[in-house]
Write a structure and sequence with these properties.
Layout lengths: L48 H17 L2 H9 L4 H26 L1 H27 L9 H8 L2
Helix pairs in contact: 1-2, 1-3, 1-4, 2-3, 3-4, 3-5
């Protein structure tokens, strides 16, 4: 062997990496975080797929028939608390949006704000549908308190 050659270094064990779980949502300051959308809780694995589908269908139908769809789903979902909670949230939201729309239509200046309110309503309905499909409960910031007191959801 060559005596001028430096000794080979001993192999080092690979460092162990402990990964922290990535946050699932941005902290919004709301009472529920950690879900697929803001203001929603973490997905619940115990929710059956048919309940998720019913809640998703209720949110999508509320785009077209306003508070009628959540009202129907609220009354037919007595044995399904997940669907009932989403229906209560959607029903309270649609009632409040209807009242706001009537007030805005009465005022001339408010008619200019009606498209903005409509777009905000569309965004909330889409967020509700995403949360329902993921199996997480949603608590809409402005109307969530109304839903809990009006519909005990």
């Amino acid at each position: 062997m060559d005596e001028n050659r430096p000794p080979e270094p001993e192999p080092q064990p690979a460092p162990t990496v402990t990964s922290q779980p990535a946050p699932t949502s941005i902290s919004t300051g709301a009472s529920m975080t950690g879900g697929p959308v803001p203001f929603s809780g973490p997905p619940d694995a115990s929710v059956a797929q048919d309940e998720k589908t019913q809640a998703l269908l209720m949110w999508i139908l509320s785009l077209f028939i306003s508070f009628v769809s959540p009202l129907i789903f609220y009354f037919i979902s007595n044995e399904k608390p997940f669907v009932k909670q989403h229906a209560g949230q959607a029903l309270a939201f649609n009632i409040v949006m209807f009242i706001i729309a009537v007030i805005l239509i009465i005022t001339v200046v408010g008619m200019l704000l009606l498209p903005v309110i409509s777009i905000a309503g569309l965004v909330v309905i889409i967020l509700g549908a995403i949360a329902a499909n993921a199996g997480s409960r949603i608590d809409i910031p402005v109307t969530g308190g109304f839903a809990k007191s009006w519909f005990k959801s």
